[in-house]
Amino acid sequence: MEGCDSAISPPRLSNSDAPSPTRVGVSGEHGPTHSEVYGFIGSITIVVAAGIFIIWAYVPDYWLQCIGIHYYPNRYWALAVPTYVTVTIVLAIGLYIGLNFLATPPPTSLKSIFDEYSEDILSCIPLSDNGELDIEPISDISIDRVNEMLNDLES
């Protein structure tokens, strides 16, 4: 009987033979970074705050007082705060766009074509030592040259 049971059961490992437990989900010696921890705590905080806000905004006063919550802000703020935040964001975007329009020169200004970093095309392209043409240096094309190229394409 003993030989039959031992043939079917798997061999037992002693404690010294058991593999050491490893941490699942964490790579090696390194734990989570600060941004991961702060992100996790922030996401949990947002979910809890949203839940409390929805309960406060929609549950009747009588129910809140039955569960022992007697002090809470006026329901006016349930509409006022999101409205103020939305209006502030819309005004900030409008202000940002307006400041960009003020900072941009008009289309008729030469500052939109030339500035202190503009470089003219070199009239003479130097040859390399073996007589081949080098790659042209980076430069700006004048508006007159662009108009000539476009007029040549149309005709």
UniProtKB/TrEMBL annotation:
Membrane topology reported for the UniProt record: Multi-pass membrane protein
Record GO terms (molecular function): glycosyltransferase activity
Segments forming domain PIG-P: 35-150
Residue spans crossing the bilayer: 37-59, 79-103
Record-level GO cellular component terms: membrane
Keywords, comma-separated and alphabetical: Glycosyltransferase, Membrane, Transferase, Transmembrane, Transmembrane helix
InterPro entries: PIG-P
Disordered as annotated region, ranges: 1-30
Origin: domain of life: Eukaryota
Pfam families in the cross-refs: PIG-P
Localization, UniProt: Membrane
Descriptive protein name: Phosphatidylinositol N-acetylglucosaminyltransferase
Organism field: Perilla frutescens var. hirtella
